[in-house]
Specification:
single chain, about 180 residues, mainly alpha, 7 helices, globular
């Protein structure tokens, strides 16, 4: 389940990148850079704690690729939410460095991931056509497999899949379900 979750998460980037290239999706470079950065921090911290996440491995790789495309084709905006996300990531790194507790980095990075999602969620609410429904559907499916793959229910293993599923359920509702009922 863990490997399948990672593969699905990585596959979901394909239609998303295609939608960016066709001008159908207008990504936020700031959101994607935050996600790529804090996902990388979380992956390193989770590995330190012995928590493996195929989903997060796929997310890190794909998020860095999308960040490059978002810088080229997206709409750069730096508001208070983005600064809060960056601060959360920095606080997580500092707490980890000072205490040696990687779980603090995981907690802070997942708070930053959720905060970093706010601009994307807001844009999807205003204009759901700016997001790719196929990508968000596959990402949500990946979240289901990531939850099924959890073997140890502790902060190091649960927080990342929980943050991802919160974001992906929200985006699925805005991008897939809401347009179907409007």
């Amino acid at each position: 389940m863990n490997v399948l979750s990672g593969i699905l998460f990585l596959i979901a980037f394909i239609p998303y990148i295609i939608a960016i290239l066709h001008g159908e999706t207008i990504p936020s470079p700031v959101s994607w850079a935050i996600w790529a950065s804090v996902d990388t921090i979380a992956l390193i911290a989770m590995r330190k704690e012995g928590a493996m996440s195929g989903q997060l491995s796929g997310a890190v790789l794909g998020a860095w690729v999308v960040t490059v495309f978002a810088i080229i084709f997206g709409r750069p905006e730096m508001g208070s939410i983005e600064w809060i996300s960056i601060a959360g990531a920095i606080i997580g790194i500092l707490l980890w460095w000072k205490t040696g507790d990687a779980v603090l980095a995981i907690i802070c990075s997942q708070i930053a991931v959720l905060a970093g999602a706010i601009p994307t969620i807001a844009e999807a609410y205003i204009n759901p056509a700016h997001e790719d429904p196929i990508a968000w559907s596959i990402w949500l499916l990946s979240c289901v497999f990531a939850f099924l793959a959890i073997k140890k229910w502790d902060a190091a293993n649960v927080l990342q899949p929980l943050a991802f599923i919160i974001i992906d359920i929200t985006m699925f509702a805005l991008v897939v379900l809401r347009p179907a009922f409007i």
